[in-house]
Each structure stands twice: as C-alpha cells, then as structure tokens.
Structure to design on (282 residues):
DNA sequence: GGATACTGTAATAATATCAGTTACAGTTGA
DNA sequence: TCAACTGTAACTGATATTATTACAGTATCC
C-alpha cells in the first residue's frame, strides 16, 4: 500500500482528535514522523476532495471539514490510492502467438480490479472516527 | 502487489495449458516477458510449497503437480506475497506523548491485517484452472 | 565417460521508485 | 512590513526492484 494513504489517514485522525483548532504541516509531520513537505502534498489532495480546509498565512493550517464518523477509509483510498493494488508491471505480451501470453495481461488486470473493489468494500466499513476510538482504547490498556 | 505473484500465477497457468510436458525456465521467461533467473527463483518457491515438480539436467524443467482447478490464487498469495499489503513504513512513534501518534502504528497494522484477510478470501475464489479458461475465452473473442 | 542442457543460487550491476531537503513565491494576520 | 503559514518545483539521497553474469550441481543422451 501506498504510504501516502497511511499519512492521510493518520493526519485525519489527528485532526479529528483536536477538533477545536488547526494543525500545521509541521505539527502533523512531527506526529506522523515524516517531513512537512510530504504532509502538505497529501493534505493538498485531501483538500481537493473536500475532506479538509486549509488556511494559508500566519496562524493557518489544516482543519477537518467533515464529521469523522462519516469519512471512511474507502473515501480516502479512492482519493489517493485507488488501483494501487495492481502491479505496474504486466506479464505476457499481446503480440505473442501463445494464448496464455497474449491474453494474460487482460485477465490478470480483471483479477486485480476485482481485488481493488474488494479492498474498497472492506475500507468502507472503517471510519476515521472509529480509528480515533481505537487509538484511544489502546491508551486505556 | 508483488510482481513475483504475477509471475507465479502466469507460470502456473502456462504449465496448466500444456499438461503433457514440461516447460523450461527459459520458455516460461519468454512467455512471461522476464528473465530466466527470476523465473527459477519464483519456481523454486512454488516447488517448496508443492505446486510444481522440477527435473534438473538435460530435458528437465518444471511440471504442475496439482490439479489446476484445486490451486487457488490464495494458495499462491500465501506462499509468496502474504502480508504484502501493509506498507513497510509505519506512521507515528510509540515513544511520543500524543495518544494518536503513540498508538497509530498498532491500529493501522490491525487495519491492514484485516485487509490482507479480505484479499485472501477474494483470491480463494479464483483457481488457476479458471484463469486458464478465461484466457482461452478471450482468444475466442 | 564426456558433451549437452538443464536447475539452483549468489553476487553484482543497472534501473526505477520513493522519501527528504532546499528553495521560493503566494497568502494571511498582527 | 514582518512573521508564519501553504503550495510547488527541483534536486539529492536512499531504498527497492529487476536484469545480468557466473558457476556449481544434476540428469540425459550419445
């Protein structure tokens, strides 16, 4: 899995955890353990898809613009990791004479599309809000 | 997805397509569009898991040792790509004070374990034999 | 027995992908 | 006007992936 997906989910959970205010890319990066530029890139994508709002300038940062219980991992997955399951590489060669070699790419592709849908369905059942609860539950223990 | 998985599946379908005899690593590599060493490495793994038999020496090669309709992609996945869904990288830091940062890795890991099981269940429904049929069906069209 | 055609495997080299850093223009608030 | 942000692009370095080369081991055929 695309690690931008992980950063996105972590960031959203963090924002859900402090709904009062904003977090800057530096704060988020510190929390996630990566660098601010990477965070800003991911957040830019989340903004385009309406998950968060940004405020530029001094005192700015990012803020959740949706109810954490309404945002599913499937939403996030679709926004920045859809289709990431299929390997970039395709086996076989359509030009070849062999039945297997010439048609494998297409069949394999269908398999991975199905897998992608399956994965998406699974993510559909997990919300940012639920992940926040789980994180808090771990703390108790 | 691990491209060794793709090579493995393609190779098994190819062997199923010519059940009479064997295929050498060079033939398979040509068909898959990669190099023979890579194929031998993957096949070595498939052999250890009992999917194929090998014969060394002149006239040797690889041969299916199971009914193609009994071998599922889940079997193959478990053999050489299990757990590949989770990114190598983990967000957060258990040492941090923040609830989110310190517990995210664990929660995220649980999510990906679930996703992996989901994927495996999907692959359970696809056999090598079925993929061979699909490949042949494409040819008709 | 010896030549030939394979597998098995390690080591290395080439290439592609991914992540971190630096730099800077644009925006906002005090 | 200054300080603190975001948004991006370009560059660098690290890491992962793939291909290549090389060679020992093994079976077959003559």
């Amino acid at each position: 899995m695309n690690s931008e997906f992980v950063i996105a989910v972590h960031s959203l959970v963090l924002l859900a955890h402090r709904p009062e205010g904003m977090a800057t890319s530096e704060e988020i990066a510190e929390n996630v353990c990566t660098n601010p530029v990477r965070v800003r890139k991911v957040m830019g994508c989340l903004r385009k898809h309406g998950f968060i709002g940004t405020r530029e300038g001094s005192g700015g940062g990012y803020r959740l613009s949706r109810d954490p219980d309404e945002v599913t991992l499937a939403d996030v997955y679709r926004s920045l990791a859809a289709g990431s399951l299929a390997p970039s590489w395709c086996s076989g060669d359509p030009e070849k004479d062999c039945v297997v070699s010439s048609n494998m790419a297409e069949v394999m592709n269908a398999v991975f599309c199905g897998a992608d849908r399956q994965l998406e369905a699974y993510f559909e059942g997990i919300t940012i809000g639920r992940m926040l609860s789980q994180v808090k539950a771990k703390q108790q223990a």
In short: Chain A touches chain B through 53 residues (CB under 8 Å). Helices of chain A lie at 3-17, 25-32, 36-48, 73-80, 99-124, 128-140. The CA atoms of residues 15 and 64 of chain A lie 6 Å apart. The domain at 3-140 of chain A is CATH 1.10.10.10 (Arc Repressor Mutant, subunit A).
